[in-house]
Amino acid sequence: MSRRHYDLPPFTTLAAFEAAARNMSFKNAARELSVTPGAVSHQIKALEADLGKPLFLRQHRGVQLTPDGEALFATLADNFQQISRQLSRIRQFGDEEVVTVGSTTAVAALWLSPTVIDFWREFPDINVHQVTQDRPFEHVRDLDFFICYGQAPGVHLEQTPVYRDDLVPVASPEIAAQLQGITLEELAQQRLINLEDTGQTWTQWADWFSGLGHKGDLNLGSRVTSYSVALQFARKGAGISLGWKRLVAPMLESGKLAVIEPFSLPAPHQFYLCGQSDEQLSKGAKKLRSWILREAHEPEVR
Known about the structure:
elongated, D-Maltodextrin-Binding Protein, domain 2, Arc Repressor Mutant, subunit A, four-stranded antiparallel beta sheet, alpha/beta
């Protein structure tokens, strides 16, 4: 098919430009494409000649995108990702519909997985793949969307609020029973399990106590980098964890954890569903997205 059917320049020039813009380096783009930097430069010059506009500003210490270059890169990045996901689906599953959603391990185990199971029972022909990691998702190249606490960086992502949780201190039922009714100052001197932020913007104990008006010292005990581990420490009686009340509801309902009353603070951030726009999602992905948002806005069962 002639490229003039869509009035597009040669694909090789677009691919070279996208790689150079993403890496902000002709040299790194050449390494990725297994060609020479001169070949990348030649392709980009050909594209600029075709468009009649410069896409890069060549500087002494590197390159910088022009406004036209930034606009073209945003369009190419979004569409290349969409093409990549569709090709992956075709290679792996043919006509079988697959949706891929990402989250932290704690969100997956405590909230998302039960939601996905309910969805699968309603739509058994749609396979949902879950990707879990406790570091930020930098892109959605291999995902339809992901769930994160607080807005994710990335101007090309649609970010839809899912829900805002309440933050409460949680511990084993035995410890919680002993500490019911203590003052905020006394709570600050208990063994607090500190979740060191791994880029997920999890709210810290210092932020929580400050939000409730406490300005004194805190007894930060164990330090962990996974929220799932923090909850396990609390469950085993090793200290007190900061609990996202709705997220840990399964552990509260089962009696594995208990809330230390009466302290509660609305979370500074909401959970967000981040990913491609509706126009770029498959029918199955749209159904799962709607399911997750609808489930999140249903009243909690007490």
